[in-house]
Specification:
Layout: E1 3-12, E2 15-24, E3 30-34, E4 43-45, E5 50-52, E6 54-59, H1 80-91, H2 96-112, E7 115-122, H3 138-150, E8 153-160, H4 182-194, E9 200-202, E10 204-206, H5 214-224, E11 231-235, H6 239-249, H7 253-260, E12 267-271, H8 277-286, E13 289-292, H9 294-299, H10 307-313, E14 317-319, H11 329-344, H12 360-376, E15 391-394, H13 409-415, E16 422-427, E17 430-434, E18 437-438, H14 441-455
Parallel strand pairs: 1-4, 6-7, 7-8, 8-9, 8-10, 10-11, 11-12, 12-13, 13-14
Antiparallel strand pairs: 1-2, 2-3, 5-15, 15-16, 16-17, 17-18
Length: 461
């Protein structure tokens, strides 16, 4: 149904604006946004300042079942590669029914954390033995069902994954559920689109340069033809990956991609932690974007993303929850900025007063909104006419925001704690989070607890 909403303040055109009227059409998109407009008799008054929803541009839903369970070390050293082997063990246990429950819990938490759309980087294609399901889309459909269960928007990205590493021709035993070919990836994309579900779409992905060869990547690109949907790829997350790529190809990963692939605005590189200035410039010239996942990258010890260089180059930057140890976007923005402050021993690194933006949080938010929309394949995003009617109502009663002037609410939201930050969350004109909790939160948590007990009991190694 159509409806009219009104807020005392809302984030319109990159800044807080007063008395904002938002009309939502029958299609779940904004028909009209008017600022400095008195409340009308038919309007529903939103209980606080309103922000646009954010896109979570990189998610592995099954890893929600592992979040918080990898924080002990028994060997002399623990790093990304040892974490990865333990993560594989989790990927070998989870069934499609369990995947739906785990993903639904995650997606509800993402909504509560201010994400209204998620890009699911999906490579858990096969059954526990590594064989095909009777329906090759079984795991894919579990994710789609989970998104529908909780009301979050979804861009499903089926992943091409064909080998265990540079110089290898097959997958390793712990990767057996990841196996996929180009025709299979394209078939999964088409299967999701054929469902015709609201707020659900699909693009494609390549896991990484170590997981797919040149010919297969060329085959995928050729198969995409003029499809405008996004194509995502893990790249240069770890220094060891860069070293392996140099040994195998004679080039750094981003350098290789710029030389061998027809990059354009559809391409998004996830992490890009270890990027040289020349590579950043080359990516910018080709119009591709990056997805940075600060809480995961910090947790895994990946390294420091060169934020000032990427922002200065004008490359679209999106944010992702990745391994799910962080499930709200204020945490990601804060972690990213704080990593830069520690590295450079400066403050407000992301701010750009020379460009008229003295607020670090505002500049990062704007990049995240624009970059996230592109990463998800959304032509319009935010509190603008024609965009999907997604919005967040900020909880100004939360302790960290109490007494904060309206013009500084975003700054405090990002840098002064974010517990229960969002009172309401709407997707396509439908309210799914009320008083900071997903409507089905209690049921989802019970189901999730039961699945976790199953995953971590008899089948746990």
């Amino acid at each position: 149904m159509s409806q009219t909403l009104w807020s005392p303040f809302a984030w319109v055109e990159g800044r807080w604006q007063p008395e904002v009227l938002l009309r939502v059409g029958f299609d779940g998109c904004f028909e009209e946004i008017r600022t400095r407009t008195p409340m009308t008799a038919d309007a529903t008054v939103l209980p606080g300042p309103v922000l646009p929803g954010m896109v979570d541009a990189h998610s592995h839903a099954f890893q929600r079942a592992y979040a918080g369970l990898a924080e002990r070390r028994s060997a002399a050293q623990d790093d990304f590669w040892s974490w990865r082997e333990r993560m594989y063990a989790v990927s070998l246990r989870i069934t499609s029914a369990e995947m739906r429950v785990v993903a639904a819990q995650l997606y509800a938490e993402l909504l509560q954390g201010g994400y209204t759309h998620v890009c699911e980087f999906h490579y858990l294609h096969r059954n526990e033995a590594g064989g095909h399901y009777a329906d090759p889309a079984e795991m894919t459909l579990a994710l789609v069902a989970a998104a529908q269960d909780v009301g979050i928007g979804l861009t499903l990205l089926p992943v091409l994954y064909e080998r265990g590493g540079f110089g290898e021709s097959v997958l390793r035993p712990g990767q057996r559920r990841f196996a996929s070919t180009v025709p299979e990836v394209l078939a999964l994309r088409d299967r999701v689109r054929a469902l015709g579900l609201p707020c659900i779409d699909a693009g494609t992905a390549v896991h990484s340069l170590r997981a797919a060869g040149l010919e297969s990547m060329r085959e995928l690109v050729a198969g995409l033809r003029d499809d405008p949907a996004p194509l995502h790829l893990h790249v240069a997350e770890q220094a060891g990956e860069v070293d392996d790529c140099l040994r195998d190809t004679g080039m750094r990963p981003l350098q290789w991609l710029c030389e061998h692939m027809p990059l354009d605005a559809r391409w998004f590189f996830v992490h890009a932690t270890h990027a040289e200035p020349a590579e950043i410039a080359a990516v910018a010239r080709r119009g591709a974007g990056v997805v940075v996942c600060p809480s995961t990258e910090a947790n895994l010890g990946d390294g420091f993303f060169n934020l000032p260089r990427w922002l200065a180059a004008g490359v679209p930057v999106a944010f992702g929850s990745d391994s799910q140890i962080g499930r709200d976007w204020p945490t990601e923005l804060r972690q990213l900025e704080y990593s830069q402050r520690l590295l450079r021993r400066e403050r407000n690194v992301a701010a750009a007063p020379a460009e008229g933006e003295d607020s670090t949080a505002a500049r990062l938010l704007q990049f995240g909104l624009k970059g996230g929309a592109a990463a998800a394949g959304q032509a319009r995003w935010g509190l603008v006419k024609g965009a999907r009617a997604d919005l967040l109502v900020v909880n100004t009663s939360a302790g960290a925001l109490a007494g904060i002037p309206a013009t500084h609410v975003l700054d405090a939201l990002v840098f002064s704690g974010n517990a229960a930050a969002f009172r309401e969350v709407w997707v396509a004109g439908q309210r799914h989070v009320v008083d900071g909790r997903h409507r089905a939160g209690a049921r989802l948590e019970r189901e999730f607890a039961s699945v976790m007990a199953s995953i971590w009991s008899a089948r746990a190694s």
